[in-house]
Amino acid sequence: MSTENQPRRHEDPARSTPTGYARYSFEFLESAFMVDQQAGSRTAMWVPAYYLLGHGLELAFKAFLLTKHQTLQQTRSLNHNLVTALDACQAEGLSNIVQLVPEDVSHIEQLNSLYNAKELEYIVTGARRVPSFPVLQGIAVKIYKGVAAQTEWRGSLDRWIS
After folding, report:
1. Rg, C-alpha atoms of the chain
2. pLDDT tops 60 at residue 66
């Protein structure tokens, strides 16, 4: 049986819901926090932790947009740009449920410069400026909590906030 003309599962709106996106956001964010915690002072582990955090944020933003009845196609058109996704969320009222200060946005922009350019997936030599992981962690939890509350997913990341 050929599957050429069948939609891929992640493109099926019945199978890719805001709740599912929030769940995956939770799982990627918690994984990022675990990697960071286990890494301790080993600097070689920063790349996976930042990648997982970036992907968790991307999924949270897309979960929020899906709660606002944007289509999967619309959320996919954002690609992996965290700033574009955040802007789209702000236009849909994210600021009514999550209060971000300019410094929060600046940290997301710094992460995005690496995440969107795929520099957290593929090696690029040279020095980089990365935002503070603990600060990003707090921002990510704040965004996730606000977004997850708009869905049926109830996973909590509170244990990761001091």
Report:
1. 16
2. yes
Q: What is the pLDDT, as a whole number, of residue 2?
A: 54
User: Which structure tokens are listed for 128?
Assistant: 């980089």
Is 132:103 a contact under the CB 8 Å cutoff? Answer: no
Residue-range domains of the chain with CATH: 15-150 (1.20.120)
* For residues 37-64, average pLDDT: 90
For the chain, the helix, strand and coil percentages under 3-state DSSP, each to the nearest 5: 60, 0, 40
Q: For the chain, how many residues are written?
A: 162
**Cα 142 to Cα 104: distance, rounded to the nearest angstrom:** 10
The contacts of residue 106 (CB under 8 Å, 6+ apart) are 131
Q: What pLDDT score does 70 carry?
A: 92
